[in-house]
Amino acid sequence: MNMKVVALTLVCCLPVAASAQSGRQVKTINLPAGVTVQYGTMSRAGTLVATIDSDNVVRVWSTRSGELLQRLADGSHPPSDLVFSLDGRYLAIAYQLVPNEKGVVRIFEVDSWKMEHEFVVPDVFALAFSPDNRRLALSGMVTQAWDVKTSRMLADISPPFGGSTSLSFSGDGNWVATADGDGHVRVFDAGTEKPRSSGTEFALEPLAVAFSQDNKAIIAGGVDKTVSVIDPETGKVLRTLSKQPGLILSLNVSADKNQVAVIYGSADSFGKVDHLMLWDLDTEAVLADFQKPGITVVGGTFVGDHYLFAAASDSQLSVWSLR
Amino acid sequence: MVARREVLQKCLALGSIVIASDFSADSMLFAFQKGEKPLAKPTPPNPLGPFYKRLAPVSNILRAPGDPGLPLTLSGQVFDTRGDVVPGATIEIWQTNHHGLYDVDGYRYRGKQTVDTTGAYSFESVLPGHYPDKSRVCQHVHYVVMAPGHKPLVTQLYFATDPAFEGDPQRNYARDPLLQTPELIRPVVLTGEPNELHAKVRFELYLERP
Fold first, then answer.
1. What is the per-residue pLDDT for A5?
2. Which of A161, A216, A287, B197 has its CA 20 to 30 A from that of A29?
């Protein structure tokens, strides 16, 4: 999802929650002078982190060595989102060509950094690869699924209005779930556009959505500050996790455990993304709770028995491990 | 005999006709020749933002007695891009209160109405505040406009009096990071006695067909 857009328009009005830290900082990267990180994403293996920076440059860093591996710039066009394919071979970057109207998605091969594919699309907020890396779903002014190789649009699953803030392929690649601006979570057949149910209605906007590791549930959250577990067949909310003080901006589901990492906005201010909680979806227990004022969580992934994530401060990008 | 096109072109060149910003000179000339109404530019879209809330009450009175802030009347008409009135359009708006906070628990400063047969609408509210985090987002009101046979419009209204524009919205509109065009910034007319001022803003809405 485009946390940049969301963060610019956030208002949180509840008191700050008590915080507990169980994270360990494993790498610190000094950013170039005058550059700050606005958004980022981590490869599923946790070896790479890519950031959209304040100078409109995408930088790709090694999380192990801290080395800057690549710098991708596109003149004056600002990047709006980026995502690694699940196998880590590709990095897709959406650039904004005409705000609210037109964008372009470029897909780079990570080893060579050669641009493999490019297609012009409506303005994009969020990107998601299918598990087989052959399709790319995007959301923004519209919500669509594209064939990567042919640059052909396969499905247009745009909600009635407001676009989608987040989307996710199911683990088998057959379904796409969307968190829509009109207050719905919807699930579509990724090939036929056929809706799987009438969707799930929320009063307030869902901002993040993901399939559970076994594809039997959809995890969603947003302005209501509550994680909802949804039956994808019926759209019914099966249960909710306890409400937190901050808005839910991003969700990461473990590939092999029924766990989810939830990135919350700060409870006391706009645009601060400094709270991360790990939840066990079976027991609804909080496995870890990390909150550190002054940083912005920019993305992470489950690696083995811990959650690896990147966080940015004014002059540094840091890599943290949370158990 | 001077052709109608020539007269119009000369008037345009001399600036003796004021063209409403929603109509281009080319489209006026073309339509004038064809004897048709000129095509208006659709109202520019703007992001929905994360604070839309479903099921807003059907009401155009968003201001309660004693609410802090400058009383504000928002009004206008809904047209299609041919300039024809769109009766039956539904307009939903939401905004922050005077202090820059959205009501996410309830429905304060949220409402919707269906326009009348003249396409007219009005809402009674207060001038929204700036977000309290000192972000660069300017005062604004969110709109969603829906009408059968037309594309839904998601946009925002901004106020020319916002201090961020320093009196020159045409030049300074980009100070708001989400504002891509000065067309969404509207003049504010102040009426009433100095101790009972009331702001009035007109915002005409132009919908596209699919």
1. 43
2. A287
Of A141, A161, A163, the CB nearest to B144: A161
From the candidates A6, A14, A100, which should be mutated to test the interface with B, based on the most B CB atoms within 10 A?
A: A100
* Residue showing tokens 């820059």: B100
Task: List, as one string, the DSSP characters of B141-160.
Answer: EEEEEE-TTS--EEEEEEET
Residue contact B102–A247, C-beta within 8 A:
no
Report strand pairing: B120-126 vs B110-114.
unpaired
Q: A136: helix, coil or strand? A: strand
Q: Rounded to two decimals, what is the model's pTM?
A: 0.85
Q: Chain A to chain B, count of Cβ pairs less than 8 Å apart? A: 81
- Class of the domain covering A3-322: mainly beta
Report CA-CA distances (Å) from A210 to A108, A181, A251, B145: 24, 16, 7, 30
Domains present along chain B, CATH in parentheses:
4-34 (no CATH), 71-207 (2.60.130.10)
User: Would you kindly state where each structural domain of chain A is located, as residue ranges?
Assistant: 3-322
Report chain B residues whose CB lies below 8 A from the CB of A201. Answer: 54
The 10s digit of each residue's pLDDT in B30-40 is 555 555 666 88
A157-170 residues labelled b (16+ CB within 10 A) or e (exposed): bbbebbbbbbbbbb
- Cβ-based contacts of A5 with chain B (< 8 Å): 47, 178
Distance CA B73, CA B156 (A): 15
- Count of CB atoms within 10 A of residue A305's CB? 8
Residue A270 predicted with pLDDT over 70 = no
Asked if A203 and B180 come within 8 Å (Cβ–Cβ), the reply is no
